[in-house]
Amino acid sequence: MEISKEKNNSKNNNSKDPEDERLSFTDEEIANLKIGSKKFEELKKLYEDQTDKYAEWRGTITEGFKKWLKGEKIYDRDKERISLYVSEDTKTKWQDFKESHDYSTISALIRDSVDYYIEQKSDFLSGRLQGMNEKTISNISH
């Protein structure tokens, strides 16, 4: 299998940026690429060095790696994944809230909720209680 490359002329031709030369594999070539083969290992190393992403996950070629092989642009979110384990009841409650308050995803709801919590906690701890009315402050103190 020959590695075909196509020149990306959108940048300065003297540049040594890895984005200047993109691979151009076909779907058939990708399907025939075997995990563990010498060619796969070379491409995997190149991809992982350039993108800091995995080419293979749990014995399967990743979609990002396939896109990279086809020459598609790889976008870096510059974010890190955080996972939560919650009960089915909690998940249902969050989904209901998400839908009734026009959140596109549970992730968006969680991000907004955490930001709100941090803001409220920071305001309270820094002694800035201007956002509370006098009755609320009175009820807290008594």
Q: Report, as a whole number of angstroms, the end-to-end distance.
A: 78 Å
**Helix-strand pattern, N to C?**
EEHHEEHHHH
- Name the helicity range: 40-55%
Structural class: mainly alpha
Arrangement of strands in the largest sheet: 1-2
- The total of beta strands comes to 4
Based on CA inertia axes, which overall geometry fits?
elongated
Low-confidence stretches: 6-16
Q: How large a portion of the residues is in β-strands, by DSSP E?
A: 5-15%
Radius of gyration: 25 Å
- Total helices: the number is 6
The domain count comes to 2
Mean pLDDT: 81
Main sheet record: 2 strands, antiparallel
Give a structural overview.
Residues 1-24 are annotated as: Disordered. With 142 residues, this protein is mainly α. The chain has two domains: 5-70, no CATH class; 88-141. 49% of the residues lie in helices and 7% in strands. It contains six helices and four strands. The protein has a two-stranded antiparallel ribbon. The chain is elongated. The model is unreliable at 6-16 (pLDDT under 50).
Give a brief rundown of this model:
With 142 residues, the protein is mostly helical.
Keywords:
49% helix, 6 helices, two-stranded antiparallel ribbon, 2 domains, elongated, 4 strands, mainly alpha, 142 residues
Fold blueprint:
Layout: E1 5-7, E2 21-23, H1 27-32, H2 38-51, E3 56-57, E4 60-61, H3 63-70, H4 88-100, H5 106-125, H6 134-141
Region (Disordered): 1-24
